[in-house]
Design brief:
By secondary structure, this protein is of the alpha+beta class. It has a single domain, classed as Jelly Rolls. 18% of the residues lie in helices and 21% in strands. Strands 1-8-6-10-3-2 form a six-stranded antiparallel beta sheet.
Length: 258
């Protein structure tokens, strides 16, 4: 894993993720990569009309090598290994495109003891989280634009049911609801144990977000596993990453160096 070793999760980044339940990883994609992803998306999305300016399409990872590369992008893998463990797997992926005025969803999530894969734990210096999302952005979301929002710290709250319904429905925006700012090429990683949602989109440009969702190797959220025949030239690491959940003889996603 020589390429991944260029990138290490810093102690400050561990602090941020533990504190907020999410972290923005800057400049994951180059401007050229962003342009290529957008060009492919323009072609693939031409036939999708969406609903009220909102488009949600499954499995962009099968749109060729540039999107396939996002599965185990070397800038992101260190965070996945650090927070989900050595047997991390990709659970499912999809995209969200939003035009100005589009609305969708409400604040949801949180470790309520009922969602088997929505959890967050810390012990002896080690962070472990269940279903975890890496969102790659190919358009900006600046202050007031909308899109991804959350209540930082709620991945560890003892008062999950105390979030008012008008706040959950984006009818009121108190100080504790945050919309992180991102630029094209950034990635945002968050635990599904965090209360999060999608604010109405207010910007003139289209929101473009590609969500790749990961689970520990022993668990799954989606009931549909990856069909490897839909992909070409998968690396051995990607094959391990896309394997169905298991415990017994599952190998590490990134094998230990001998």
């Amino acid at each position: 894993m020589a390429q991944e070793e260029q990138y290490q999760v810093s102690e400050e980044e561990k602090f941020i993720f533990d504190l907020d339940g999410y972290i923005v990883i800057k400049n994951v994609l180059s401007s050229d990569e962003v342009d290529v992803l957008n060009a492919i998306a323009d072609q693939k999305m031409a036939e999708h009309t969406g609903e009220d300016g909102y488009k949600n399409v499954r499995q962009p990872s099968a749109w060729g090598a540039p999107f396939q590369r996002l599965l185990d992008h070397p800038r992101v893998m260190p965070y996945l290994l650090e927070f989900l463990g050595s047997k991390v797997r990709i659970d499912h992926d999809y995209l969200i495109f939003m035009d100005k005025g589009a609305k969708r969803g409400r604040l949801h999530g949180g470790d309520n003891g009922q969602e088997g894969d929505h959890w967050y734990k810390y012990r002896d210096g080690v962070i472990r989280t269940g279903l975890t999302v890496v969102t790659f952005f190919t358009s900006p979301a600046r202050a007031g634009d909308g899109g991804f929002s959350c209540i930082p710290g709620t991945h560890k709250t003892n008062f999950l049911k105390s979030v008012p319904q008008d706040v959950r429905n984006f009818e009121r925006f108190p100080h504790y609801v945050r919309q992180p700012e991102v630029e094209p090429g950034d990635a945002l990683m968050f635990s599904e144990a965090l209360v999060h949602g999608t604010m109405p989109w207010a910007a003139d440009h289209q929101r473009r977000a590609f969500l790749y969702k990961y689970s520990p190797g022993h668990s799954a959220w989606s009931g549909k596993y990856y069909d490897l025949s839909q992909y070409e030239n998968l690396t051995e690491q990607q094959v391990r990453l896309m394997a169905p959940p298991s415990i017994g003889s599952r190998t590490n996603t990134v094998p230990d160096e001998e």
